[in-house]
């Protein structure tokens, strides 16, 4: 094997996670190969975070202006300009051209190979390009699987045959259909329901439970109410039993309870599945690694039962969010570099080479209307974990900085406090334009800042951050 086929590190998957991991190992002095069979930049850049937020932003800005007297009177027209929204979305997805990302990879000193990568035993990867030609490469130190995830398709009769949209199609659609039925009640479902309703589409959301079921109850309730006020139909605690597309192209859906929904397109937003089915874990002789399943890892992102195979991001399903995957990638890249150089590994909680926050401080924003921002545990999750808690809520409309920012402002913030340790373990806020409140909560939870110390973190007046003072007042001043 030539030196051209031997690397220190091989990274499978050139999405945001793979890029970050490869960048970290190159900075650690390791010759690194990054392999991608689609677009360099991955799901987030072209079919998820960036295009979805671009679709949502225009309507959010318009709604914000309409909620301020003096600005509202200057607005003409009832809706956003659909063509302009789609064009702006296209620009943020780089028109699905990855040349800019490729230039970054090259400038970072990372080697890039195009093709499908598959493990073929320890430290060996076979790359098959678009023409079917193969290349075998080996890694001296590590191989990292950063292949992300794909949309899960539930086993509903006729659904596959109806050719449903997934997150990819709904974020990259070139035209807005007249009507859309969305199966699911999570973040993708409510964000796309928010976006397409604002684009003039007739939207129906069908959820087995309540909306945003993993978050505090009041979050999903507020989003459902706003969707309905905007003209969407929200059906909760019901399931889809059958789907069919007729000769005209329309989709007909049968629901539990014999209701029927018709739409131009159906979107499946019922979760994600790790893309590990054809990564080649079956060639490693390890019974606990099953193709299609999440890869089990320790906190340095080393795959269980190996001393060379790593995984980060959705391939592990530890915390399937882009920012958490990038965090894992940084930890993994640093751990690989340290081990390759024979340096000690700092794998204690909150250590240099670990991803600890995935267990207790995962921040997430749902860019629905209203926005939902959360980090840490919900009140129910804390109770289930056996943590003695104090839970306090505060209405955002009573915060001066919020009320002056938006006429008739509404929303709610919640703190979940570990009553024994006197630190915050959970924070949720629901309201318009509240996402930027989240990082303060993340820092507070990660830093385990005592409540007594937080009293001395003075929020500027009048800003939305004053909600922190009001929440502390609701907890009560320490004696």
TrEMBL record:
Pfam families hit by this protein: Pyr_redox_2, Pyr_redox_dim
Domain Pyridine nucleotide-disulphide oxidoreductase dimerisation: 362-468
Comment on bound cofactor: Binds 1 FAD per subunit.
Highest taxon, organism lineage: Bacteria
Boundaries of every FAD/NAD(P)-binding domain copy: 7-324
GO molecular function: dihydrolipoyl dehydrogenase (NADH) activity; flavin adenine dinucleotide binding
Binding, FAD: 53, 147-149, 314
Taxonomy of the source species: Bacteria, Bacillati, Actinomycetota, Actinomycetes, Micrococcales
Swiss-Prot/TrEMBL cofactor(s): FAD
Keywords attached to this entry: FAD, Flavoprotein, NAD, Nucleotide-binding
Keyword Flavoprotein carried by entry: yes
Protein name as catalogued: Dihydrolipoamide dehydrogenase
Biological process, per Gene Ontology: 2-oxoglutarate metabolic process
Bridged cysteine pairs (disulfide): 44-49
Residues annotated for NAD(+) binding in this entry: 184-191, 271
Species of provenance: Microcella alkaliphila
Protein family per UniProt: Belongs to the class-I pyridine nucleotide-disulfide oxidoreductase family.
């Amino acid at each position: 094997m030539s030196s051209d086929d031997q690397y220190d590190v091989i990274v499978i998957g050139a999405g945001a996670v793979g890029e970050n991991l490869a960048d970290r190992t190159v900075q650690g002095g390791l010759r690194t190969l990054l392999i991608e069979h689609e677009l360099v930049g991955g799901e987030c850049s072209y079919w998820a975070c960036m295009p979805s937020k671009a679709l949502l932003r225009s309507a959010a800005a318009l709604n914000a202006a309409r909620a301020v007297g003096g600005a509202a009177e200057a607005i003409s027209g009832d809706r956003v300009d659909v063509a302009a929204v789609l064009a702006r979305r296209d620009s943020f997805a780089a028109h699905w051209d990855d040349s800019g990302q490729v230039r970054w990879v090259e400038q970072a000193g990372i080697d890039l190979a195009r093709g499908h990568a598959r493990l073929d035993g320890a430290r060996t990867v076979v790359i098959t390009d678009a023409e079917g030609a193969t290349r075998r490469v080996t890694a001296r130190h590590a191989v990292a699987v950063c292949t992300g995830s794909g949309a899960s398709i539930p086993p509903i009769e006729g659904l596959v045959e109806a050719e449903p949209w997934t997150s990819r199609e709904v974020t990259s659609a070139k035209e807005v259909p007249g009507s859309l039925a969305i199966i699911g009640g999570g973040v993708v479902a409510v964000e796309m329901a928010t976006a397409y309703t604002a684009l003039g589409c007739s939207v129906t959301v069908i959820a087995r439970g309540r909306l945003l079921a993993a978050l505090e109850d009041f979050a999903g309730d507020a989003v459902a109410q706003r969707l309905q006020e905007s003209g969407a139909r929200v059906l909760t605690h019901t399931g889809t039993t059958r789907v069919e597309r007729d000769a005209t192209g329309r989709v007909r859906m049968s629901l539990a309870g014999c209701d029927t929904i018709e739409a131009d397109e159906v979107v499946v937003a019922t979760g994600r599945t790790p893309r590990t089915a054809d990564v080649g874990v079956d060639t490693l002789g390890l019974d606990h690694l099953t193709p299609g399943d999440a890869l089990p890892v320790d906190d340095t992102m080393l795959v269980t039962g190996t001393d060379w195979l790593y995984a980060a991001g959705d391939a592990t399903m530890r915390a399937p969010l882009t920012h958490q995957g990038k965090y894992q990638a940084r930890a993994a890249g640093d751990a690989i570099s340290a081990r390759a150089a024979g340096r000690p590994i700092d794998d204690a909680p909150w250590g240099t080479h670990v991803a600890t926050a995935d267990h207790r401080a995962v921040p997430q924003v749902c860019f629905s209307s209203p926005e939902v921002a959360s980090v840490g545990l919900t009140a129910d999750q804390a109770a289930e974990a056996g943590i003695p808690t104090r839970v306090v809520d505060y209405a955002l409309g009573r915060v001066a900085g919020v009320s002056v920012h938006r006429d008739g402002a509404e929303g709610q913030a919640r703190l979940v406090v570990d009553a024994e340790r006197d630190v915050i373990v959970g924070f949720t806020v629901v309201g318009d334009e509240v996402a930027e409140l989240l990082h303060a909560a993340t820092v507070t939870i990660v830093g385990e800042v005592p409540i007594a110390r937080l009293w001395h973190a003075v929020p500027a007046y009048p800003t939305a951050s004053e909600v922190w003072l009001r929440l502390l007042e609701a907890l009560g001043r320490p004696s």
